[in-house]
Amino acid sequence: MKRLSPVTPPAVVALDDTDRALIAALADDARQPVSELAKRVGLSAPSTAERLRRLEAQRVIERFTVAIDPRALGYTLQAIVRVKPLPGQLHLVEEVIRRIPQFVECDKVTGDDCFICRLYLHSIEQLDEILSKVTERAETSTAIVKSTPVARRLPPLD
User: Is the same domain home to 100 and 34?
Assistant: First the structure.
């Protein structure tokens, strides 16, 4: 997955109403043909394609992706894991987390814990097996996700 460098953030871009409508339409369905996007935002298809290229060049649009329902793949549980590496283990813990595919997100954060991670599980029994690879080098605190009242969404586009 491509990530922006934390050292060189993208320049702040001013979006107009058409840009915002285009991004919102893509957030609803990134597979829409340009002709359908053009109808939704009130532009011609060539103008819409040019706006998409510009938004990509400005790094407003980073990539087009797919959203899946993990339950369809048998992942019935989600967990949030706070990870506090033991002294001198920070980079090794980060590498261990990167190699475990069930960790689908991980943020390096300030505070007592260095990482906040999300992982998907087929069963609760998997949790100990996965975390044992991390707890050799870190302390963990785990919460099972009951529901997601606010799913990942776009930040405000104003």
Answer: no
Which CATH number covers residue 99?
3.30.70.920
* pTM greater than the 0.85 cutoff: no
Q: How far is CA 44 from the centre of its chain?
A: 31
Distance CA 20, CA 51 (A): 11
Residue-level pLDDT, tens digit, the chain, 158 residues: 455 545 566 688 889 999 999 999 999 899 999 999 999 999 999 999 999 999 999 999 998 888 899 999 999 999 999 999 999 999 999 999 999 999 999 999 999 899 999 999 999 999 999 999 999 999 999 999 999 999 888 889 88
- Concatenating the DSSP letter of every residue in 123-148 gives STHHHHHHHHHHHTTEEEEEEE----
